[in-house]
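Recall that a protein's primary structure is simply its ordered list of amino acids. Everything else, from secondary elements to tertiary packing, is in principle encoded there. The following example makes that idea concrete.
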Amino acid sequence: MNYYEILEVSPKASPEVIKAAYKSLMQRYHPDRNPGNAKVAEHASRVVQAYEVLRSEERRVGNEC
């Protein structure tokens, strides 16, 4: 699974779409909303990692997990 798939966006997505997807996914998967659920916490961590890479144009080019 690559970072685009984690954030559920197209590789051609604009920075605004990437940010909106990140916010939406974090609302759904944030560990505080799902206490004690290790799978959800792990997914939230992957969402954060994907956003950190894809929010920057320089880091975005060619990066997949």
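The mean pLDDT is 90. DSSP finds four helices and no strands in the chain.
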